[in-house]
Amino acid sequence: MKRFFNVCAILLAICLAASFVSCKNNDDDDDDSSVVAGDSSVVAVYTYSDGHDTETLTFYDDNTVTSVIIFEGGQTDSKTGTWKGNLSEGGTISIRNGTYDFSVSGTGNTMTYIGNEFTKQ
User: For residue 64, what are the contacts with CB-CB under 8 A and spacing of at least 6?
Assistant: First the structure.
């Protein structure tokens, strides 16, 4: 009987381990999971805050971009996407199930994206 309980405990542990490994964030608005940011060098970082929430866009030299939003209550939302164009004039960002234009000021210190002005860090 003791052996039976040991076998059951081992099987239960294996099932629990397998279920935790298979857990994943399955949000419908996830971007292409094949895009992995951070495997290359950071090209630029821009930040926007409306006094409540803060969004940071990090551009990488492999044309990936990450968006991290920190909400007023401390919750965060992070997405990875791609960008095209150049960071001295502008281009497009494909992220959060859409493609959006961005423009960069003449000095490169200000970027306009989805109607908000981001400041270069």
Answer: 35, 36, 37, 38, 39, 40, 80, 81, 82, 83
C-alpha pair distances (Å), 16 with each of 5, 62, 69, 90: 16, 38, 32, 48
Residue at token pair 């493609």: 99
Angle (nearest 5°) at CA 50 between 49 and 56: 25
- Please choose, from the candidates 87, 88, 112, the residue with its C-alpha nearest in 3D space to the C-alpha of residue 102: 112
Query: Residue 77 half-sphere exposure, CB side, CA atoms within 13 Å?
Result: 13
Question: Taking all residues of the chain, what is their mean pLDDT, rounded to a whole number?
Answer: 78
The Cα 110–Cα 121 span in angstroms is 10
pTM of the model: 0.65
State residue 54 phi and psi, 5-degree precision.
-130, 130
Q: What is the pLDDT of residues 77-96, one digit of tens each?
A: 999 999 999 888 899 999 98
Q: Would you call 22 helix, strand, or coil by DSSP?
A: helix
Asked if residues 50 and 62 have their Cβ atoms less than 8 Å apart, the reply is no
